[in-house]
Structure to design on (399 residues):
């Protein structure tokens, strides 16, 4: 079956939006400057796999698995508790607090657990008065930070939190000015003096507002990801046209990874990783690390893909060739380049790109991340790519 939702029409739409997006929405000069997320944050979040079904033991088990399996050393250091950690009500002094049944030892103890293991703790909050899970009907807490921004930021800092996902579902309903609410929390976090990654989700996600990079380290570019190829591919196609907004300290966030969950095959999981690496996206795993397959581990821990994602130049990929087979390229530090082929169609396809099409000259050594190809070329790259699969190359100047 071909991909009706993202084949030609979608690609055309995406590339048209690229030109229009760059014209109408040039990247602002100033990036949020809080000293963190100079490369895209890497870690894990509870939401994609567990939803509201979380407790401290599960989170600690996942942290152990991240360390023991080598994923911490591969760069995945943030362990993020998503929605549903909160108690139903604030304390009498107005402070936020945790659900005593599921987090009996409290968030500060969880933060210490992470810090003792070389990890960092992320937590979840909202700019309105309620969390997003209330909206989805599976949680009853009323714990948004509206009107409590400075108090909550101080609380998070005191607890030892290193990352805040600030997620909007209610501001439109509650008549809250999103820009003001997100900005206020940004200032409140900065005022604590603790370096805390600030990840925001405003709706609608696009266009990217000028103020996102000024107040936040990362911002969502699309609605929620789901565990299927159409969602992964559609999110990539919507995010590539706004690639130019990403830079060190301030990143497009095409949402958390679904690699290792049920529905992506090996090729699709490979493309998920390759595309997110090319987009310089935060790599926040969303699977049960305790039970992952060797293949999923191998994809998530792929050193070359991580190297591309984490390149300190922080330039997200641009589209070199459009169509059902897409070629992307991004410059890396030290004169290297990353180039990817993704086959969005349901047929095997030969993909070729010349050095001229890439804007490169001379002779290049290349290494491929997922298919063990390497060599030297002064002409270009080509590969026969399976349906939904990707090739991810790093090119190094030769001699
Ligand atoms: C929104 C976010 C998700 C997740 C849920 C939690 O849908 O986009 O990533 O945080 O809220 O309720």
């Amino acid at each position: 079956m071909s991909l009706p939702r993202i084949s030609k029409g979608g690609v055309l739409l995406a590339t048209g939006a690229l030109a229009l997006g760059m014209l109408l929405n040039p990247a602002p000069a100033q990036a949020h400057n809080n000293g963190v997320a100079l490369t895209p944050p890497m870690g894990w979040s509870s939401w994609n796999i567990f939803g509201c079904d979380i407790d401290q033991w599960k989170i600690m088990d996942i942290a152990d698995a991240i360390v023991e399996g080598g994923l911490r050393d591969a760069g995945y250091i943030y362990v993020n508790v998503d929605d549903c950690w909160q108690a139903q009500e604030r304390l009498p002094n107005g402070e936020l607090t945790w659900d005593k049944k599921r987090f009996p030892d409290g968030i500060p103890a969880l933060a210490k657990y992470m810090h003792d293991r070389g990890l960092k703790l992320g937590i979840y909050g909202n700019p309105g008065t309620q969390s997003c899970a209330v909206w989805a009907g599976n949680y009853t807490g009323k714990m948004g930070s509206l009107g409590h921004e400075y108090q909550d930021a101080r609380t998070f800092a005191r607890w030892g939190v290193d990352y805040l996902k600030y997620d909007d579902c209610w501001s439109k309903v509650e008549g809250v000015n999103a820009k003001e609410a997100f900005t206020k929390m940004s200032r409140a976090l900065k005022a604590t003096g603790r370096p805390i990654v600030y990840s925001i989700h405003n709706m609608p996600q696009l266009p990217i507002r000028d103020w996102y990079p000024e107040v936040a380290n990362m911002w969502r570019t699309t609605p929620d990801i789901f565990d299927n190829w159409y969602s992964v591919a559609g999110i990539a196609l919507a995010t590539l046209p706004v690639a130019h907004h990403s830079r060190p300290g301030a990143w497009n966030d095409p949402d958390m990874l679904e690699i290792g969950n049920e529905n992506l095959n090996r090729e699709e999981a490979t493309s998920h990783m390759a595309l997110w690496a090319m987009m310089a996206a935060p790599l926040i795993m969303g699977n049960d690390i305790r039970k992952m397959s060797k293949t999923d581990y191998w994809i998530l821990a792929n050193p070359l893909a991580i190297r591309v994602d984490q390149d300190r130049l922080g330039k997200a990929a641009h589209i070199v060739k459009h169509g059902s087979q897409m070629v992307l390229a991004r410059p890396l530090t030290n004169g290297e380049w990353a180039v990817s082929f993704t086959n969005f169609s349901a047929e095997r396809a030969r993909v070729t790109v010349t050095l001229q099409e890439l804007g490169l000259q001379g002779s290049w050594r290349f290494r491929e991340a997922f298919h063990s190809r390497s060599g030297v070329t002064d002409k270009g790259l080509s590969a026969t790519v399976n349906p939904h699969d990707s090739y991810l190359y790093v090119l190094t100047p030769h001699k």
Summary: The chain is about 35% helix and 20% strand. The CA atoms of residues 183 and 215 lie 6 Å apart. The radius of gyration is 21 Å. Residues 8-24 form the longest helix (17 residues).
